[in-house]
TrEMBL record, chain A:
Full protein name: Pyruvate dehydrogenase E1 component subunit beta
Location in the cell: Mitochondrion matrix
Cofactor(s) this protein cannot do without: thiamine diphosphate
Source organism (scientific name): Aegilops tauschii subsp. strangulata (Goatgrass)
Tagged with keyword Transit peptide: yes
CDD domains attached to this UniProt entry: TPP_PYR_E1-PDHc-beta_like (cd07036)
UniProtKB/TrEMBL annotation, chain B:
PANTHER family: PYRUVATE DEHYDROGENASE E1 COMPONENT SUBUNIT ALPHA-2, MITOCHONDRIAL, PYRUVATE DEHYDROGENASE E1 COMPONENT, ALPHA SUBUNIT BACTERIAL AND ORGANELLAR
Protein name, entry field: Pyruvate dehydrogenase E1 component subunit alpha
Dehydrogenase E1 component domain ranges (all copies): 97-392
EC number of this enzyme: 1.2.4.1
Keywords: Oxidoreductase, Pyruvate, Thiamine pyrophosphate
Organism listed in the record: Aegilops tauschii subsp. strangulata
Annotated CDD domains: TPP_E1_PDC_ADC_BCADC
Length: 328, 422
């Protein structure tokens, strides 16, 4: 199943199961979705439940949050999360904080979803990763699926969750196909929020990653195994809440850690993971924590520069070797 | 500066004076007097005695009474409603009481703030009471209301508890948000009051979302989406209004135009301060927001309109006596003469007082007694609120999520304070 099919089927099944679920976003209806994630849903559920919006993120995000105040379950699509910045006040001040400020009176069962991070050659304004930004905020849940199983299970969990969820997909993963177990196809299937997945077990070094970088980390682990380094790859799945228990348990086993992310390095996800490990498992570390992240520059367009701005498999391999005190 | 209103002209009602009031008689005697004055009147049930908080003698009658608003409605691409407003003595007395209670509560909040029992931001509504009370008179609790941060009186109008309001202002656990919201974050979901928002203009799309849900569920209810003249230029307002018009959402945008966005006069902030016209393709009505009956009439009209036709804008011409907040004296950008002039000519409570006196529905002394009782009621509520404790430390970590079982959270020093969310 491709990630696209996984997302589409999850939306379809959740809309079928719960009449209060509705979709909102640019081109989600008649255009069948800018990336075809919502294909067929307008025909099936009608224009009252699949709403094409004008290009007005602040307006439609606010409307979605207001509908969620009333107990409906909106799924608001941002064509990319770069455009979510136009609506970020509603995501944070109107959605994330409401349950707390109202001492539980106003809950916000909303999902904000869409592609996050770099695509290919789309330039600086269309390539930013927002995982660290949204994961910063108490009151939000931030999910980052990698595989088709992740996409289906996490999106279903997100729609059923009574809290506001930021669901960060990746455009380059939409077309990728993954093998799935039969249970994944069941309409009640879901993946728990806040639990990471060990994609590959290992004993020498832990590599944490999310979204597209999970695939790169798995490729790096394959290369490392040929050089005698057994890497354990953790697919975070959930940035907030972060599965600190799983990360620390793994580091206590391997004693070495490489964090991988696509976004800007300063104040990133890796910084939080490193600090968590220093706080909880310092004595277990045999080497400093290594961090692989996007370059600290706006995303350039030229293909060679873009390649230098985003982590590559060899960067992950090099960092893992450093953590193991091996020269490259 | 806002024009002063002409003296209201009222039609003399064609009904007998409330006999119970005229004679201060018992209900039995009142019934006897009724039978004498008008045989037809004898068929009607005698007036119910008022609850103890209302001064005895003030008319409780539900006999219809028609009053003309002091200024006509000005409209934009819609036919305005009539200036003749149907009301009853009971409704006028209740409006007087509710507005006087709100006035007293806000003035008491001013004192509490100066005594440092209220901290941070405190935005007071005194002067604008007619908007909250007039709106409430036209709608039901199934209709929704959302506003920004000048929200204390909207909360009270929706049936909010006076003690809970003061406790919230003072950050106590018996506050309506358990002390975790503060002045700008009052909510009452069971009365469809959705707050209570600190970001100027954000509540406008949120209110359109409330209306979206009402239409989605085919509830036949509407949302009143309040904002100020300062928020009226926000881009997100026009984004939301566009969608509300496209999708025919049952939302009424209510601009509480008190003519100053914090310290900036409307004509300095808005190229066009005719806020009722700013909807362009969306109809609008300009309303004397200091006239309880005009507000009621406009809201009733608006509710019927939006259920058929989609959004409408109501611009309430109103005024706040206090500054923008307790940090703003309110006199650096307005003259004291202007403030005093509005109080003299347009005060909403004084107008209803005049109506009650002119129609012989109450005496001046009775209304003064009512205000005295209200003052006592507010003082008692404040005393009770002061007894409420501050929230327990465990409240710090409550309500971060609805579904938060097992999630971790941290205090300032996570080696000292680290918890699993309840």
């Amino acid at each position: 199943m491709t990630v696209r099919e996984a997302l589409n089927s999850a939306l379809d099944e959740e809309m079928s199961a719960d009449p209060s679920v509705f979709l909102m976003g640019e081109e989600v209806g008649e255009y069948q979705g800018a990336y075809k994630i919502t294909k067929g849903l307008l025909d099936k559920y009608g224009p009252d439940r699949v709403l094409d919006t004008p290009i007005t993120e602040a307006g439609f995000t606010g409307i979605g949050v207001g509908a969620a105040y009333q107990g409906l379950r909106p799924v608001v699509e941002f064509m990319t999360f770069n455009f979510s910045m136009q609506a970020i006040d509603h995501i944070i001040n109107s959605a994330a904080k409401s349950n707390y400020m109202s001492a539980g009176q106003i809950s916000v069962p909303i999902v904000f979803r869409g592609p996050n991070g770099a695509a290919a050659g789309v330039g600086a304004q269309h390539s930013q990763c927002y995982a660290a930004w949204y994961a910063h905020v108490p009151g939000l849940k931030v999910l980052t699926p990698y595989s088709a199983e992740d996409a289906r299970g996490l999106l279903k969990a997100a729609i059923r969750d009574p809290d506001p969820v930021v669901f960060l997909e990746n455009e380059l993963l939409y077309g990728e196909s993954f093998p799935i177990k039969a249970e994944v196809l069941d309409s009640s299937f879901s993946v728990p929020i806040g639990k990471a997945k060990i994609e590959r077990e290992g004993k020498d070094v832990t590599i944490t990653a999310f979204s597209k970088m999970v695939g790169y980390a798995l490729q790096a682990a394959e290369i490392l195994s040929k050089e005698g380094i057994s890497a354990e790859v953790i697919n975070l799945r959930s940035i907030r809440p972060l599965d600190r228990a799983a990360i620390n348990a793994s580091v206590r086993k391997t004693n070495r850690l490489v964090t991988v992310e696509e976004g800007f390095p300063q104040h990133g996800v890796g910084a939080e993971i490193c600090m968590s490990v220093v706080e909880d498992s310092f004595e277990y570390l045999d080497a400093p924590v290594e961090r692989i992240a996007g370059a600290d520059v706006p995303m350039p367009y030229a293909a060679n520069l873009e390649r230098l701005a985003v982590p590559q498999v060899e960067d992950i391999v090099r960092a893992a070797k450093r953590a193991c005190y091996r020269s490259s | 500066s806002p024009p002063s209103a002409p003296v209201p002209r009222h039609r003399i009602p064609q009904i007998p004076l409330n006999p119970a009031r005229a004679s201060r008689a018992s209900p039995a005697m009142a019934a006897a007097i009724l039978r004498r004055l008008s045989p037809a009147a004898a068929q009607r049930a005698p007036p119910r005695l008022l609850p103890p908080t209302l001064a005895r003698g003030v008319s409780d009658s539900t006999e219809p009474l028609t009053v003309e608003t002091s200024v006509p409605f000005t409209s934009h691409i819609v036919d305005p409603p009539s200036r003749d407003v149907s009301t009853t003595p009971r409704e006028l007395a209740a409006a007087f009481r509710d507005m006087a209670l709100m006035r007293r509560a806000e003035i008491a909040a001013d004192s509490l703030y100066k005594a440092k029992l209220i901290r941070g931001f405190c935005h007071l509504y005194d002067g604008q009471e007619a908007v909250a009370v007039g709106m409430e008179a036209a709608i039901t609790r199934r209709d929704a209301i959302i506003t920004a941060y000048r929200d204390h009186c909207l909360y009270l109008a929706r049936g909010g508890d006076l003690v809970a309001a003061f406790a919230e202002l003072m950050g106590r656990v018996d506050g309506c948000s358990r002390g975790k919201g503060g002045s700008m974050h009052f909510y009452k979901k069971d009365a469809n009051f959705y707050g209570g928002h600190g970001i100027v203009g954000a509540q406008v799309p949120l209110g359109c979302g409330l209306a979206f849900a009402q239409r989605y569920r085919k509830e036949g209810t509407v949302t009143f989406d309040l904002y100020g003249d300062g928020a009226a230029n926000q881009g997100q307002l026009f984004e939301a209004l566009n969608m509300a018009a496209l999708w025919k959402l049952p939302v009424i945008l209510v601009c509480e135009n008190n003519h100053y966005g914090m310290g900036t006069a409307e004509w300095k902030a808005s190229k066009s301060p005719a806020y009722y016209k700013r909807g362009d393709y969306v109809p609008g009505l300009k309303v004397d927001g200091m006239d309880f009956l005009a507000v009621k009439q406009a809201c009733k009209f608006a509710k019927e309109h939006v259920l058929e036709n989609g959004p409408i804008i109501l611009e309430m011409d109103t005024y706040r006596y206090h500054g923008h907040s307790m940090s703003d004296p309110g006199s650096t950008y307005r003259t004291r003469d202007e403030i005093a002039g509005i109080r003299q000519e347009r005060d909403p409570i004084e107008r209803v007082r005049k109506l009650l006196l002119t129609h012989d529905l109450a005496t001046a002394q009775e209304l003064k007694d009512m205000e005295k009782e209200i003052r006592k009621e507010v003082d008692t509520a404040i005393a009770k609120a002061k007894e409420s404790p501050m929230p327990d430390t465990s409240e710090l970590f409550k309500n971060v999520y609805v579904n938060d079982c097992g999630l971790e959270s941290f205090g300032v020093d996570r080696k000292v304070v680290r918890t699993v969310l309840p």
